Amino acid sequence: MKNLTFANRWNADLIDRFYENWLRQPESLEPDWRAFFEGFELGQTKTPSAPATSTTTAAVAGSPVDSILQARVIGAIFAYRGIGHTQAHINPLEANPPANPRLSLERLGFTAADLDKPFFTGNYLQGETITVREILRRLHETYCGPVGIEYLHIQDTKRRRWLQARLEPTCAKPNLTRAEKLRALGKVADAEIFERFLHDRYRGNKRFSLEGAETLIAGLDALLERCPATGVEEIVMGMAHRGRLNVLINIVGKSYEFLFREFSENYLPDTTHGDGDVKYHLGYESDHATSGGQMVHVALAANPSHLEAVNPIVQGKARARQRRRQDNVLRKKVVPVLIHGDAAFIGQGIVAEVFNLSQLKGYRTGGTVHFVINNQIGFTTEPSDARSSRYCTDIAKMVEVPIFHVNGDDPAAMVMVTQLALDYRQAFGDDVVIDMLCYRRRGHNEGDEPAFTQPTLYRQLAEHPQISHTFAQRLIKDGDLTEAEASSLRGDFQKSLDEAFLRIRKEEETQSGSVNETRKRKLQGSTAIFQPPYSFEPAPTPVPREALEQVAKALTTIPENFNADPKIRRQFEQKWSNFLKGEGIDWGFAESLAFGTLLLEGTPVRLSGQDCERGTFSHRHAVLYDSTNRTPYVPLMNIAPTQERFCVHNSSLSEAAVLGFDAGYAIDYPEMLCLWEAQFGDFANGAQVIIDQFITSSESKWQRTSSITLLLPHGYEGQGPEHSSARVERFLQACAENNIQVCNLTTPAQFFHVLRRQMKRSFRKPLIIMSPKSLLRNKDCVSTEPDFTQRHFQEILDDPVPVERPQRLIFCSGKVYYDLAKVRRENNIKNTAILRMEQFYPLNAELLQNLLKKYQGFRTVVWCQEEPRNMGGWTFMAPILEQYCGMKPVYAGRKASASPAAGSVNVHIIEQDSLVEHAFNA
């Protein structure tokens, strides 16, 4: 067995030796071993609950022989709790699970003669005195039945005792009412009928069926049924494509008609810009009515084929919805639920990243209920080739959460475990993992032939009965169901599907067939968000002098008796002095002024990322720490009593999970300005899946809008390939249909206005900002008071230096402007105008044309950039400049390169000087 743990190293002789050490010197043992013997001392002193017999008296009195046996009883309890799951009947494809020799009578240290001797059970069953035979029987039923339980890795005794109290008295057997059993059976049957219906009606269509895992529907239904009793008002779900259609219909409540339209060859989605996505990636939300009539809101997030990428999105959405329901403290009203595949759960690193977020103050959601659809195979890959651990769920042990392995052919066990999982989540605010071992009746998709690679498995599955059949037979045997009831079980749901299918067919036959007519139909039940088109109309971002001063004063005031670092105190004094002069306002202060004025106007702000409290380059200081006791002080939370909340969180060292979390938050809380800051812009590489799937394309695919803002430090200062480029070219390549805004700004005031603009318009678009590094302290990169109070954002900045009848126009973006301006000034160049592309996309073509008219008569157009020729803005801007300027632009920049930047400072300086010179002389 791989990855042996304390609980696996079971040896009777070792127990004897450790027990002797424990008697003499308990502190000499490791904490796990001390816990192992914790019940024995009670066993010597507690009065037995049963009438004392001569045998019982001997055991409790502590004779040498019976004392050793008593220790072995406690050891057996610990062994079953620790490794009972290894021989639990959790695999529906195994008639009998293989025995674990570590749980044999001999290895536990007993003989047949010991079985009828009574012993004290310690912390098992509240300290009863019962026979070894009965103890072992109950332990086997509890830990080796259709549910395998892993929880001894949880260090907190209270949590372990809670689980034991819920599981051990009933031997982990479901205690369901007849109604609950019949409901579970009905849900499984509905799931099977739905899959069979799609298979028969839409042969050859990919649907990534749930066949073999239909018990998931019973589990999810049980979760929703349990919600009202536990105070849950809303479920936010995320899952990959397998089983999504079944979940949409049988859990989330999507209409049959809408789904059948999506299967139609004539279906054309009514999207904002017209791309859409395949039906097994789409999201949906609705109000779900429980059997008791209570309503639970259910939202299923859209998700691409990057299976686990949706995990942080769901966490962010859940936290945003908790804020909406004023559930920011206990976090018990909104519960995130994630449904995973076994291969992806252990194989994709973002799972571990999200688990790591679960207890961090800026990202916790009060616990997630995880369901793993464990098909026991990837696409065609066996578990032995896909993971190094025993279970796909072993990754969850990093955060000490309970893990339940459930036989997927046992809906009753699944319902019980799901109820238990939600109760645990509500009690402790922790995640819970339910690993449902099942199988895949078909291949990876409906066009796949699984027998190519798993011939023996699929011969077995051909004979394996449906879950509803075996469960119904069990209920009939137990007297909960009659044969007649079992026969009529499928009728109503089948009828509903047939009627909906016929309605859609008739609808198609009576339509004219015109594409326009089809497009005019509304998406029934759709939760898509449609918004006004993009506009360059200036947003109301200027701020009155009085409000700006109020914010500036609060930002630079340090409370009395607060021991601020002397350097920070001097910085604050200088910022306030500059503000009073109305000049010299730098980048970091402009950012704080933007945040502060938004807060004052009722817009909350959330900023997260690695080291973002201070800022990677010590430019922000959003949180001050007392030099003597590290008491925090947040200036942005001390502007006015009526201001909105400012949240700033240093994140874990993750890009994908943290950006995903913030992107999800921004989607479901559009009233808040949500920003994610990369430590260096290059680090956005680690979040590329989130950027591609949930930021640049989600409006087109799923009609999900957001104003998520990315701050990506960018600029060539000789810091090498990994700390220079935020890869602006990758964002520009993704630009289409006004999907995102890509900016490379050059003044603090421009930064101020673009941040405020995000929240002052009637539409929402993600904003990508190539934020500066050296410009944070460049004395030329400052703004004046009128820039904040009288002006607004300009997508293209005109040259501030008057240039009459220029012969040359240099277009640039970002930091290189200051290098160009310096060379022009030092060399007294009079015939060149420098124009700054502050916003690459969407391009303000009208503004560009107006500027070109101002400088008409120019003979040369240059595009100057710091990045290599195959990177940066060149390939994006070259055709645009040619179109509007009427001539091909000249390139001034680094030569094409495989690496973003040189590693040598000297090489960097030579290249920088050369490209700037070339811009004026080419």
Task: Explain this structure.
This protein is of the alpha/beta class and 922 residues long. It is built from 34 helices and 24 strands. The strands form five sheets. It has an eight-stranded mixed β-sheet. Helix 29 (748-757) links the parallel strand 17 (741-743) and strand 18 (767-771). It is globular, with a radius of gyration of 33 Å. It starts with 11 loop residues before the first helix and ends with a helix.
Integer average pLDDT:
89
So how many helices?
Answer: 34
Question: Could you name the ranges where pLDDT drops below 50 across 5 or more consecutive residues?
Answer: 1-12, 39-62, 266-274, 512-526
Query: First CA to last CA: what distance?
Result: 69 Å
Q: How much strand? A: 5-15%
- Largest sheet entry: 8 strands, mixed
* Rounded radius of gyration (Å): 33 Å
Strand order of the largest sheet: 3-9-10-8-7-4-6-5
Quaternary state, please? single chain
Main structural class: alpha/beta
Number of DSSP E strands: 24
Categorize the overall geometry. globular
Helical content band: 40-55%
